[in-house]
Design a protein that fits this description.
This protein is 34% helix and 19% strand. The chain has 17 helices and 15 strands. Helix 4 crosses helix 5, helix 10 packs across helix 11 and helix 11 packs parallel to helix 16. Catalyzes the rate-limiting step of the oxidative pentose-phosphate pathway, which represents a route for the dissimilation of carbohydrates besides glycolysis.
Length: 560
């Protein structure tokens, strides 16, 4: 190097800025100040089994800081602060007693009804006491309400929040509301609920949570499809014969039959969880990774789905379901359903998407199974062994594997089915895969992780040293900054938008009404089986070819 040259640090450079206007859209001031997380329905099963454990895991990983956050439980149960803490303690796993105690001390409890202003006024006063006690220099008060409640009380609870518990107008910050499924029972009830909530909150304040969108392998779908050249020319009707999206449980309703009977397996699983997975499998490439661009494409593919035909539906009910005294003797509610969706567009015309879900089956799993067409000119006479399949195992034992026909080792030219396997338990042994609720709750308030803090510090440096252009732009950190500041604003990519919800209900409401009216009858099936034989027969009619003699076994370290 010549003596006249000098090295550039990551935060310095030789060219000058004319202005910092190119960063205007990034909203440089990161969110700080008090974060109040309110769990409504705090004494219920969902809160103690999912919501509080997710918050605890975020606390363990440093995404909730003791000096910046407080958690409030609200329910009708007559409990003390310590009473709620003891109720949830047993569900908070994997930490020392000291760490657990630190988290539990962040939790306070307020008792009140869901339709009375008195309880919510007390809740607001309790939150305000915490906010004013923090000596908050930024003056930013952030309030996140998690409704771990039945949808029937959403309107009254949201009215109370709007009337009594909003972020004070005298301070910067926000108020956001997370609502759980089910979002109605059909199109009309869903639209009514959306309209009632829409009168109280803007769309960017509402986070309709579907926890399947927080699963690791579901979040991997966009990366797999659009970051790998391998899949781009294959992912269409020219190469794919059919797609199955499957959810199986090996247990029945287990005492919840009365509740389940109000909804059934289609409302409970297919119309939301599996349909969200379907969107990510079938949608077109979005313009960018911005939440609205992704959700726009999901809406488009939902609007391309043709009306469901009765002859492409099988519903079933396992023997013994009606033994539950809370289930009516005449119930036709399906505990199993297999539904074929057809997409009327250039990519998917003629390809059946088979969405299957059931209880009391022979195994527990959720997976996507993309089956490719037969290889033309079968010179090895191996067609009987099965087709190529790309399988994404969502749970349990997260994995992706490609079923291939290969030569059987030995002197003979014989073929067999094998696989290319990416099993997460093997490949990522030292990586903890976050629970879905952790990811989704994090997206609603999105604090900065350490790498994002570095980017924000870089921007702060630029504002102070306005005469220098940072070379970190050439290091790819500008993209990181965009991602970071999108997250600060609250990332709704993995939440359901109102028009997306409407499009989903438009697909299934006619079928659900026909089932409710008895126009389709549930066939019986034995617990512990694959489900109704009629469902397997329908899959064969749709062109699915089952592989016989091949079973994928998750690899383990014991083999090596």
């Amino acid at each position: 190097m010549s003596g006249g040259s000098s090295e550039s640090s990551p935060l310095s450079g030789q060219n000058s800025f004319s202005s910092l206007s190119s960063f205007k859209d990034l909203e440089l001031s990161s969110e700080s100040g008090c974060l109040s997380i309110v769990v409504l329905g705090a004494s219920g099963d969902l809160a103690k089994k999912k919501t509080f454990p997710a918050l605890f895991h975020l606390f363990q990983q440093g995404f909730l800081q003791a000096g910046e956050v407080h958690i409030f439980g609200y329910a009708r149960s007559n409990l003390s602060d310590d009473g709620l803490r003891e109720r949830i303690r047993g569900y908070l796993k994997g930490a020392s007693d000291e760490h657990l105690s630190q988290f539990l001390q962040l939790i306070k409890y307020v008792s009140g009804s869901y339709d009375s202003g008195e309880g919510f006024e007390l809740l607001n006063n309790t939150i305000s006491e915490y906010e004013t006690s923090k000596n908050n220099e930024s003056g930013s008060y952030r309030r996140l309400f998690y409704l771990a409640l039945p949808p029937s009380v959403y309107p009254s609870v949201c009215k109370m929040i709007r009337s009594y518990c909003m972020n004070p107008s005298s301070h910067t910050g926000w108020t956001r509301v997370i609502v759980e499924k089910p979002f109605g029972k059909d199109l009309d009830s869903s639209e009514k609920l959306s309209a009632e909530l829409g009168k109280l909150f803007e769309e960017d304040q509402l986070y309709r949570i579907d926890h399947y969108l927080g699963k690791e392998l579901v979040q991997n779908l966009l990366v797999l499809r659009f970051a790998n050249r391998l899949f781009l020319p294959l992912w269409n009707r020219d190469n794919i014969a059919n797609v199955q999206i499957v959810f199986k449980e090996d247990f029945g309703t287990e005492g919840r039959g009365g509740y389940f009977d109000q909804y059934g397996i289609i409302r409970d699983i297919i119309q939301n969880h599996l349909l969200q997975v379907f969107c990510l499998v079938a949608m077109e490439k979005p313009v960018s990774l911005k939440p609205e661009h992704i959700r726009d494409e999901k809406v488009k593919v939902l609007q391309s789905v043709e009306p469901i035909k009765h002859e492409e539906v099988v519903i079933g009910q396992y023997d013994g379901y009606k033994d539950d005294p809370t289930v009516p003797d005449e119930s036709n509610t399906p505990t199993y359903a297999s539904v074929v969706l057809r997409v009327h567009n250039e990519r998917w015309e003629g390809v059946p998407f088979i969405l299957k879900a059931g209880k009391a089956l022979n195994s527990r799993k959720a997976e996507i199974r993309v089956q490719f067409k037969d290889a033309p000119g079968d010179i090895f006479r191996c067609k009987k062994q099965g087709r190529n399949e790309f399988v994404i195992r969502l749970q349990p034992s997260e994995a992706m594997y490609m079923k291939l026909t290969v030569k059987n080792p030995g002197l003979e030219m014989a073929t067999e089915q094998s696989e290319l396997d990416l099993s997460y338990g093997m490949r990522y042994q030292d990586v903890k895969i976050p629970e879905a609720y952790e990811r989704l709750i994090l997206d609603t308030y999105a604090p900065l992780d350490p790498s994002a803090k570095f980017v924000c510090n870089a921007f702060s440096y630029l504002q102070v040293s306005a005469g220098k252009k940072s070379s970190f732009l050439s290091h790819g950190l500008f993209t990181s900054a965009n991602v970071c500041f999108d997250r600060i604003r609250g990332d709704q990519q993995h939440f359901v938008r109102r028009d997306e919800l409407r499009a989903a209900w438009e697909i299934f409401t006619p079928l659900l009404h026909d089932i409710d009216a008895g126009k389709l009858k549930s066939v019986s099936y034995e617990p512990g089986t694959r489900g109704p034989q009629e469902a397997d027969e329908m899959s064969r009619r749709m062109g699915y070819v089952q592989t016989h003699g091949y079973i994928w076994v998750p690899p383990t370290l014991a083999k090596f």
